[in-house]
Amino acid sequence: MTTEPLSFELSRPAVDPPRLPDADVPGPAPAGVLPSELLRSRPPGLPRLSEPEIMRHYSRLASLNYSISENFYPLGSCTMKYNPVLNEQAAALPGFAGLHPYQDEESVQGALELMWRLEQALCAVVGVDRVTLQPAAGAHGEWTALRMIAALHHSREEKRTEVLVPDSAHGTNPASAALSGFHVVEVKSGADGRISLADLESKLSPQTAALMLTNPNTLGLFEREILDIAEMVHATGALLYYDGANLNAFMGICRPGDMGFDAVHMNLHKTFTTPHGGGGPGAGPVGVKSDLVPFLPAPTVERTNGHLTLDYKHPQSIGRVRSFYGNFGMLVRAYAYILAMGGDGLSQASQDAVLSANYLRKLVETDLEMPHDGPCMHEFVASAHNLHEDGVRALDVAKALLDRHFYAPTVYFPLVVPEAIMVEPTETESKATLDSFATAIKEIVAQARADPQSLHDEPRNLPVGRLDEVTAARKINAYLQGQSEDPILRWKAPSETLPKDPC
Amino acid sequence: MAMLEAIGVESMNDLLVDIPQSLRLESLQLPNGLSELETMAQVSALAGRNRVYADRLTFRGGGMYRRFIPAAVAAVTSKPEFYTAYTPYQAEASQGTLQAIFEYQTLIAELTGMDVSNASLYDGATAVAEAAMMAHVQTGRSEVLVSGYLHPEYVQVLRAFGEGRGIKVRRGDQPGKKTAAVIFQQPDFLGLLVDAPALTRAAHDAGALAIACADPISLAILAAPGDYGADIAVGEGQQLGLSPSFGGPHVGFIACKRDLVRKLPGRLVGTAHDAHGRRGFVLALAAREQHIRREKATSNICTNHSLCALAAAVYLTYMGPYGLRQVAEVSFTRAHNLAARLASLPGWELAFPDRQFVNEFPVRVPKAPAVVRKLARKGILGGLDVSRWFRELKGVLTFTCTEVNDARALDELLAALG
């Protein structure tokens, strides 16, 4: 593998534009009608490549990526399970991909039916009354849920300004809370890795709007006292919000709704196998109990005697959180997955995910530190703290794994564990893969003991070695402060290669 | 069993001991799983209950358009190395995704004439909302002014976001001392051109930022936001190689001037070098983001719409500067041809005859709902009835025309109305 030039660097002025139709009807050209102030003076500096060059360019770029299709990708908290190819075929059906969002409702009954059925299925999995499919991503779903919680308190004329977030929570939790207008109050974890009930009690107050929690938590541990937590939170008049990042741990085993959660977001790109796409698009539906239903984003999908409608009449709705109806293409994929798996398959998937995590944890428990006792749920957090004396850090372990053709686990998260290595194997990996990953960990730990210096030079077998982010950041700062003209955040043409001819 | 044994437990239940017994489920209230054949049959049956209008007979826009999509786009985005990878935390093993995003950022910056683009957002609506929040933080002011016909759903999303941050959304084009930004769409929701340079000047005169919500294809012929001095350019990227798909997933773009880069939401990719001097790509300025700054982050967005951004990058690279201009010009000419012909129908007239447009335009017609139904019966997805959002536009349909609506399709539309 070698690096690939940028499309801009490959660009050749001699390349003809692609063949495209002419207008074929009489009519003005822009320059004949529009005032010059509104016209572009110089064509945008897009590259000029032939189709074969484009295809080769992107094929080479593709080969520089690790992905589930080729590599074990145990990125903790991200649920990198296999993405069934059937999903892609389903979403590409012309009857879905070709629909305009402003078509008449009568002409999109199948799409609305799919959304309604998906909502029903998600309600069944997490134990809530209604689900909005509008949010485009998990963080977007968190924020949507918090807006609904704020609206509910507001409707009760209660002024609640604080949202409690555990110290082990995903960064999106406090960010979403702040974006919703709340003050964030951190709740500490106890020595056993679970939320400290004493600390929770001291932080709960009449100002508390909600507690945001994921269960199992980011350490992969089930909050055993969840029913007590729910009671404490509800007793103060606050609501309980469930971060669905870890839903893959217990489908068919238990449900957030039954635990007492009032609002639940789900990541279709984690639990329900819509592909991660290199970082989106995903989908972050939010399920709510009846108290929050009036505040759902509009429109909702309603079904009466088999007839489906988009219902915009929700006077208490928080409004709209995204244009149109959400990432519909991802909804199709998730629905296809749920159909194929069924209730039995989803339950099996979660059990297998828990089994895989515990098995892998067992295989490496003597090689890395395990800061908390098992059993874990669908993921576990280890620590490379034991390699500290050899000068080896979690980052070195991660880079060494890359050289062994594994994507690295999540490192340095959650923040409450030093040198954290967060491993989520998922149910779609075979025992053989887990065994080989454990072998790699053992080799790396042995290498750390024998030749720690060599680990600092990993990865060696990838198109680039460790990249100097510090220098990059310094250069960006210089640009932002006007001390340099190299933006670093984009390619910039040497001036002579820009298209010069006027439009 | 071998795995349970290795763990040292007897059954799955031993691994689930932390879950209170009262919470345990027997099973999910869902049907059992299906074979691939049966699954696809069910899904296909649902798809079959939708009516799909031919590209060439779709004259409805309203923020979502039929465009020619080169086969190269799907050929690239369907590569599993792209679509089954995730976020590039390990840069060395994610250079394909990172470089593609870097190229996307450069393409968007070039198209909008801005200094820096981020790695993409969810859609045009959330891009507008994020831009408003940037302006709020930058100016310390808490009101944003929406000028003219900004997409009504973008306004709704802007209001929902604004409520959380204490930002008031007001309609008008007279910015004052409280105005953080003037937001306008070019061309606007009806397809009409606004005086973007004047709106930008007015915003700046009041000490506010100018946020231009731009149609990306139109930027091949129209002055770029950077050209007339806008501070932030945003928009919906669906037209850059993505099918309508009932409204998503698509991609929102956001780009800004140099002095606002630290306020940008979401991901940014930059160049860096390894010890051997090889150039690579990394996530940059991460200290703005939620996983580092938590509640102090510029936004809560975690990733971006990477695969859709990749589609946009392939599309723009395929088109190049002159292909994109050809697409925009063909659309322009055909739309003007269609507008003139529709306006000559008995009882039909351009709703804003003095206003310029690019490839979407509002027409006042007698009995708009009946017109739309009549066209649907002939397999044509006719204009969009915008009175649904704007009472003052009763009887107004917006028609759109792109390179997919060939000359014969225009004739068919006219014949159907005859």
Question: What's this, in brief?
Answer:
The complex is a heterodimer of chains A (503) and B (418). By secondary structure, chain A is of the alpha/beta class. Chain A contains 16 helices and twelve strands.
Structure in words:
The complex is a heterodimer of chains A (503) and B (418). Chain A has 503 residues and is α/β, with parallel strands linked by helices. Chain A has helices spanning 7-10, 30-33, 51-63, 85-92, 94-97, 109-126, 138-155, 172-179, 197-203, 226-235, 256-259, 328-364, 394-403, 431-450, 452-455, 469-480, and strands at residues 130-132, 162-166, 183-187, 208-213, 239-242, 263-265, 286-288, 300-304, 307-311, 380-383, 410-411, 420-423. Chain A contains 16 helices and twelve strands. In chain A, the strands form three sheets. A seven-stranded mixed β-sheet of chain A has the order 1-7-6-5-4-2-3, with helices on both faces. The radius of gyration of chain A is 26 Å and the shape is globular. With 418 residues, chain B is of the alpha/beta class. Chain B has two domains: 55-69 and 320-417, Aspartate Aminotransferase, domain 1, CATH 3.90.1150; 73-312, Aspartate Aminotransferase, domain 2. Chain B has helices spanning 2-7, 12-15, 36-48, 71-77, 80-83, 95-112, 124-139, 152-165, 196-205, 290-293, 306-343, 368-377, 407-417, and strands at 116-117, 143-146, 168-171, 179-186, 209-214, 232-236, 252-256, 269-273, 279-283, 349-350, 360-364, 384-385, 396-400. In chain B, the strands form three sheets. In chain B, strands 1-7-6-5-4-2-3 form a seven-stranded mixed β-sheet, with helices on both faces. Chain B has a four-stranded antiparallel β-sheet with strand order 10-11-13-12, covered by helices on one side. The mean pLDDT of chain B is 97. Classes of the chains: A alpha/beta (503), B alpha/beta (418). Chains A and B meet through α3, α4, α5, α6 and α7 of A and α1, α2, α3, α4 and α5 of B.
